[in-house]
Amino acid sequence: MSLLLEGVGASPGRALGPVRHISWEIPSIPHTSIATAEVDREIERFHRARAEALSRLVELQHETTELLGGFEGKVFESQAWMIEDPDLVAGTEAYIRENLLSAERAFEMQLLEQRVQMMESVHAMVMDRLADLRDVRGNVLSCLLGHPAPGLEMSDDEEPSIVVAHDIAPSVAVRMRPDRVLGMITAAGTRGSHSVLIARSLGIPAVVDVGPQLARIADGCELLVDGKSGRLIVDPTPAEIESHNRALAQLQVRRKILAELAAKPTETVDGVHTVVQANLDQPFEIDEAIRLGAEGVGLLRTEFLVIGHREIPSEEEQFDAYRSVVEAFPGREVTIRTFDIGGDKYPQFMSMKQEDNPYLGWRAIRVCLDEPELFQNQLRAAVRAADHGNVRLLVPLVTSADELIRTREHLESTYGALGKEPGSGGVPVGLMVETPAAVETLDLLAPYVDFVSLGTNDLTQYVLAADRGNPKVAELYDPLHPALIRLYARVVEACEHHHLDLSVCGELSADPIGVAVLLGLGYRKFSVSLSSLAEIRELIRHLSVSDLVALCAGNARCESGEDVRGIVQEYLDRTGALKVGGTVLEG
Ligand code: PEP
Ligand code: MG
């Protein structure tokens, strides 16, 4: 009988093949004390090992850049920063000197401390960096112990298999050969880890966070992998294999349809032109966004440059990242959002005190305005990237005109510093409407901005007083609550009145029912996360704006989000709009 396991779908695609467990861990280092006279020798051993580990990383970065590109290569640059981190060096030296520990044990203890610190942050991006820390551990310890570098040997005559491990380090992932590795499955790990980034670049389906049961699957067992849903079937039955083969064939057809659609405009059945852009969390998502037909980038979240980093990102690093996105979308808008840190996202280079209400605290534009070095680096990088394409700057969590005025002042001094005429750079500045204050005072904010982007994720939590990450109040957190729908309508009205370009970048624009409502309210531009982008483009092409306008007007007095959903769902079922391209969209 087959066994079903579920993890988190991390790299799309399907695979069927035998399991091959791999392990690259260096076992825990025993507690070894040294004599005082040996301290200097151990410290020197530690520094020699660091130097060797760093040179391995330089090589790995070079190889990865050749194989997959510069962005993927940077994975190993960020590991090099970890090894060069002054806290890590000083902490390890202190363990050797003060606790008389061997270099191996001292390094291990220091890493443990950093790991605990990282685990305290619940933010996904920090968790994503845990695998890098483990990779750094393996790298430095193997140098100290005289072991070969962690890696994965794959010979030409090896049978293609599905690689299974507790977690996979980026240095191991980059050695996976797509002709030999059919899938990558891990018991731990996160969707945004660097190993997943590499698997996606290699086109290898991946499922992460499957849990401890994974260790019980024996080598050689047949495994069926669905990298999108995260479902795994161990020892599938003939019927399950047949259904997998059918799904695979459908996937190929669907990819073809999507490829054809990618080049077409997103127009409704009654000829209303809409724009569907991508929300990007990392530049490595560019290729996927283009493949799915994104018409620009409506939201480039830039926190990937700061979360888990121990130093303020340099202007140059940011410029490279922004330019790579801008150049990938020639002539299209690329909307760079200024750092939205605070809330639940803390960089390690800033001392951000624990706050009682972080979402109501020092976050986003409030942090940027208080930290000029951080902000100005980002503005300079964005303005320079604008020389290469159509860049827009988006300011999150705005509650007052003063914040926009001060942002503009920073921008003016950036133009000055870059030798541009004041205001001439012409990088359009936009405001994220994601607080009730911004909706209420849009007329006062309008003079300072060129465009508006509706952030339904935060607006929902601030309007309904329901924390977006708290499962206890998840039922209250409803972006289709009548209070929100009324606010969405007012934003359209205000933007029309003030001639401001308007788009939606919150998750509501990835929800088919949400998009139908937003179209009915007058929204024409959507920025959508990649997992829903193609479906939303396809859906819009099956919707009628005039029907939806009538539907919204006729149901303006709905008492709950649930009622709204029911009415729109019924309409979508009746018109068949949800069943497009031979597959039913996830509503
Ligand atoms: C939003 O709040 O709707 C939004 C898109 O921003 P984030 O989810 O990054 O806070
Ligand atoms: Mg937000």
Low-confidence stretches: 581-587
Q: SS-based structural class?
A: alpha/beta
Helix tally equals 22
Principal-axes shape call: globular
- In CATH terms, the superfamily of the largest domain is Phosphoenolpyruvate-binding domains
Give the cofactors and ligands.
phosphoenolpyruvate, magnesium ion
Cα-to-Cα separation, first versus last residue: 32 Å
CATH architecture of the largest domain: Alpha-Beta Barrel
Mean pLDDT: 90
What Rg, in angstroms, do the CA atoms define? 25 Å
According to DSSP, the number of beta strands is 19
CATH class of the largest domain: Alpha Beta
Proportion of residues in β-strands: 5-15%
What is the number of domains? 3
Helical fraction equals: 40-55%
* CATH fold call of the largest domain: TIM Barrel
The biggest sheet amounts to:
9 strands, mixed
Element layout with pairings:
Blueprint: E1 3-6, E2 8-11, E3 14-21, H1 39-68, H2 70-84, H3 86-99, H4 103-120, H5 124-128, H6 130-145, E4 161-165, H7 170-173, E5 181-186, H8 194-202, E6 206-208, E7 222-226, E8 231-234, H9 238-262, E9 266-267, E10 273-280, H10 286-291, E11 297-300, H11 315-328, E12 333-337, H12 365-370, H13 372-386, E13 390-395, H14 401-417, E14 429-433, H15 436-440, H16 442-445, E15 451-454, H17 456-464, H18 482-497, E16 501-504, H19 512-521, E17 525-529, H20 530-540, H21 545-554, H22 561-575, E18 579-580, E19 583-584
The site of magnesium ion has 5 residues, from α17.
